[in-house]
Specification:
The structure is a single chain. By secondary structure, the protein is of the alpha+beta class. Helix content is about 45%, strand content about 20%. Helix 1 (about 5-15) runs antiparallel to helix 2 (about 20-40). The longest helix has 20 residues, at about 20-40.
Length: about 140
């Protein structure tokens, strides 16, 4: 076992990090090791994310709720392809309802050929929100 992995496991054992955080750190260590073993150059290709993760802990009152969602990127890709099958009339209604609810997205503008660019941008996504009642994290892995 390498030293970095051992340190992550020690932090997990002492309660300094959660199991989800330990999983992310170990995955990052494995990705770095795999990329470094190829050629060790600074220009190594980015690893494409396979999932969007949403983690939430809600500490309201006496109860503690947890949400752990892992959405495959393939589902996103399939959804965009299926959106192309929506009839024009339904797309117009969908756009109207989205705008009415404060979502400024034009379903007509989302094309399968633009999907990889969207996925590439999502790979940089990290949202961390801490509040007195809980914590929310959204990231790609």
């Amino acid at each position: 076992m390498n030293e970095n992995r051992k340190q992550v496991l020690e932090m997990l054992a002492t309660g300094k990090i959660t199991a989800d955080e330990a999983e992310r750190l170990i995955a990052a260590l494995e990705n770095d090791a795999a990329a470094g073993s190829l050629d060790g150059s600074e220009n190594r290709p980015k690893v494409k994310p396979k999932y969007i993760r949403v983690l939430m802990e809600d500490n309201k009152a006496d109860k503690m709720a947890k949400v752990n969602i892992r959405i495959p990127m393939q589902l996103l890709r399939a959804g965009v392809r299926l959106a192309a099958l929506i009839p024009d009339v339904a797309r117009a209604q969908l756009n109207t309802h989205l705008r009415e609810n404060g979502v400024a997205v034009d379903v007509n503008a989302i094309k399968p050929e633009n999907l990889e660019e969207i996925v590439d941008q999502l790979s940089e996504l990290t949202v961390d929100m801490d509040a007195k009642d809980g914590k929310v994290r959204v990231f790609c892995e």
